[in-house]
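Please predict the structure of the following assembly.
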Amino acid sequence: MLNIVGVGICEGQITERASKLISRAEVVFGSRRALMLASKFISGEFVEIKKFEDETYREIEKLAEKRNVVVLSTGDPMVAGLGKRLKGNVEPGISSVQLALARLKEDLCSTVVIDAHARKAEDELELIERRNLLILADRGFDPSLLGKRRAALIEDICGNERISFGRAEELRISSDYSIVFVWK
Amino acid sequence: MLNIVGVGICEGQITERASKLISRAEVVFGSRRALMLASKFISGEFVEIKKFEDETYREIEKLAEKRNVVVLSTGDPMVAGLGKRLKGNVEPGISSVQLALARLKEDLCSTVVIDAHARKAEDELELIERRNLLILADRGFDPSLLGKRRAALIEDICGNERISFGRAEELRISSDYSIVFVWK
C-alpha cells in the first residue's frame, strides 16, 4: 500500500487524515524537511530521500507491494509535487500556493499557477494577458519579463518570510524558494 | 480579531493550526456544513450564517473589533471562498480542487481553475487552448462547450462521490457540487 501524503509548508499544517496515514505506516519516506514536519506522527521506520529520481520511486513502489508505505511531500503532492511521479493514493496538504494567496488575499480562480522552479517557463508567461500569475520561482527566474506590471515577491514562506511589492521588473529574487505574484 | 479559517471538504481535513484558531475563538461563524466539520474544536459560541452577503460580512467585521472571531470556510478561503469578502487573516484549508487533482493525479501547474458555480464562465473556457481546465460547476454548466475533448466529471466529492470519464460533450451533470476536468 502506497500513500503520498502532503505535510504542508509550515509547522502545524498536517491534517487529521494525513496524521493517521503517517502514524499507521510501517515505512515513511521523505525529504529531511518533510520528515521533520511529520516527525511527531511517525511511529514506524523512516528513510530520508536523497535522490529524487525515477530509480528511487520504482524502489519505493516495489516495497509498497509488501508493506504499508507513506511518501511525504512538502506542501501538496499535486502542486509541482511527487503525486504524478509515484503510483499510489494522494492525500492533499497545504501548499505554498495557498499560503501566498492567503497573504495577498487573491483567489485561485483568478490566477494561473506556473512552475518556474529549476525550469524555463517563458512560454507560459503569456497567460498574464488573461489572468494574474503566481510563479513558483528560484534565483534563476527573471521577473523583468513581466515589465511594469504590479507584483509581489514572497521569499522563504513560513521560514524567514519576507514580502515586498513593486513593479515586476524591479523585483530582486534572493531565495530559491520564492513566489512571484503578478497582477494582470 | 478576525480569522477566516478553511475547514476542508471531507471529515478530518482540518489542520492543527486551524483547529487551534477555532478552539480559541469566542465566536465561530459558518455554514451548517462548515460548523459540522469543525464542531469538535468549537468551544465558544457558534452562529450559522444563513445569508452570504455584504451586510452579514460587515456585521461580523464589527463584532471582531471587540472579540476573537473565526469565520469558517468550507474548502480553502481563497478558492471561490470567503477570503476576499472579509477583512482578516486567512488560514488555508484543503479545497475540492486539491481533492479532484489528487483523484485524477494531475498537477495544479498544468491546470487552470475556473469558477462556473452559479456564474457564467464561457469566456474563460478559451484557456483550454493552453492548459487543462478544472471547472467548479453546477447543473447549469454546459460541458458540451468543450466538445470532444477527454474529460472527467466528479460529483459530490467526499459525500456520495461519483467519478465518470468520457468526451466533454457526453457528460451529464446531476449535482450542483460538481467538478468537470477537461484535458487540453
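Strands of chain B lie at 2-6, 27-30, 45-48, 69-73, 89-91, 111-116, 132-137, 150-155, 162-167, 178-182. Chain B has a mean pLDDT of 97.
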